[in-house]
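hey so u asked for the seq, here:
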Amino acid sequence: MTTSQTTQTTTQPAATHDTPPAERLVLGAMMFGTAVDEATSFSVLDRFVDAGGRWIDTADCYAFWASESGYGGQSEEVLGRWFAARPGVRDRILLATKFGAEPRDAGSWPASRTGLSAEAITTQITGSLRRLGTDHVDLAWGHMEDRSVPVEETADTCAALVSDGVAGRIGLSNHPAWRVERARRHAVAQGKEPFSVVQHHYSYLQPRPGTLTGDHRFGWLDDELVDLAAVEGLETWAYTPLLAGAYDNPAKPIPEIFDHPGSTQRLAALDDVAAQVGAARGQVVLAWLAARGIRPMLGGSKVHQLDAAVEAMGLELPAELLELMNGVDVTPPSA
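ran it, structure tokens below
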């Protein structure tokens, strides 16, 4: 077998080596206000800012599945209260939120969700700004694709968010490469702001071909997206890079979709590198992503998890160790 293209192609660097470690990391606020109580959320947010972190990512649908109402908004509300309690902190951070995946009817997701029509986007971003207590976000995302709406309509509406000063940049999450490119081509042809960032699930281990890694058909950062990002200079964010703690927590087994011979080889390489640099597996994974120009997102709920991630972002893996990690074939045999 030959080494997968994913191991050979890198995306546009998200940060330079001179960037403070915490600035290379995104703090995901998904469970703030539901599984993570407000006091803990504030502690994690405070530590992130004190460490020099800037990017915080949320969504209007977070976390509907963990809320009593069946609807989201709790994460944005907690962030809004944190901004209000910390005068001046909003100017120190870069804020991202997503729209399109909030249930229209509680208990009926994903069949019933708000989607990415012009009307839905306008309504959703208005609600997000109100909950966040701000007049703009630094990055606005289309959360998951909506085949009921022409992607050109989504592109036009999101471009207007930038021209109207509501968003600094726009991105797409959980979209196939062809729809990202179609939306970008349309925007450029119209002289409008194109999508410039993509956000997908990604990690050092790779899933078996044809398997879903979560709730989204196109949730995984596949080779086509990696290549598109490299050619077009798109920034790339990776969510759930630590597989919910499975790299280091014996109580959390590696998900079954990663159970194949390629993962066995990759874990062996990961153990080798971790031993050589004196770091945990998960920290090496975060450093590996950063070395590839991919901005990892941490969904940690504890301060010590954040501290470990920030430490990892300052870890520079030598070229020979990166070569060792990248040289393992990631393509498992088809069933």
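The chain is about 35% helix and 10% strand. Residues 1-14 have pLDDT under 50 and may be disordered.
lmk if thats what u needed
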